[in-house]
Amino acid sequence: MATVKEEMETVVAKPNPAVPVPAAAHETVVIASDEWGPEAPPDHREFVRFTRLHRTLHVCMIVSFITLALTGMSLKFSFTGWARFMSRMLGGFQVAGFIHRTAAVIMFATFIAHIVDLCKLKKREYGSWKALLLGPNSMIPMKPDLLEFIATMKWFVGLGPRPQYGRWTYWEKFDYFAVFWGVFIIGSTGLTLWFPVFFTRFIPGSFINVATIIHSDEALLATGFIFTVHFFNTHLRPEKFPMDTTVFTGHMKLAELKRDKPREYEALLASGRMAQHLAEPHPAIVVKTIRLFAWMALSIGFSIIVWIIYAMLFAYR
User: Which residue blocks in 47-90 are alpha helix, DSSP H?
Assistant: First the structure.
């Protein structure tokens, strides 16, 4: 049995020299054109990390979450000037409530679409839930993620090298399951508040007050987390600053893949499957449009954080 120390060394170790990894794994990927076909030099192509469906669902999640945050926080902090101004811009608190519930429906639909896609992915590529949930590309947090977290903390303070991250890092898995938690807790309490007559057939009426507190405070927690921790991990890290457009374009440069996901990079090269995951870059006008949308989302998110901090420090009741 390997010790924890040995397993941690595996997380940050260099690739095993016994594994037949092409020399290109240690340099910029430039492979002969006869292997790739004559249509384009491979060093101009980009790694396709997310499918069109994944990108579409993420955009739906962004739009619905920001809408929920704007309308929900303006109601929670309705005693502040910025909340009253926001509600007037939206047509009043009653209209804001209608917009809030519409955004909630979009988020529920996005979540359901993702679950359906997982079922199709299991049937198409994995064959069983065990292979999907416990395989090498699983989103389930496992022991290697804990070791990777410890190795990262050591790297932060100069006590070790940068871990050799794979397809999904521990913070990406945390962000992923935070959505499940949010949809279950915030979504269930939101439905209770939306349809109180129906739900009080099965639960005590006093639970409506409990649901109000849970819904409000969990939404505040989710908003604060997404617009600070998630934004930092995704966009504000030194290697990503000022913005990571991968989840919007679905593409990342090979040099970026090699730097950020070295285990995945080397595994694809060793298996000879790298070519299957490369595509031409998007046209410049598409990238500019995506960046405009992303900057708008970032700006709104950071503004909401500033408004919340102001309300908590100077106007909270």
Answer: 52-76, 81-90
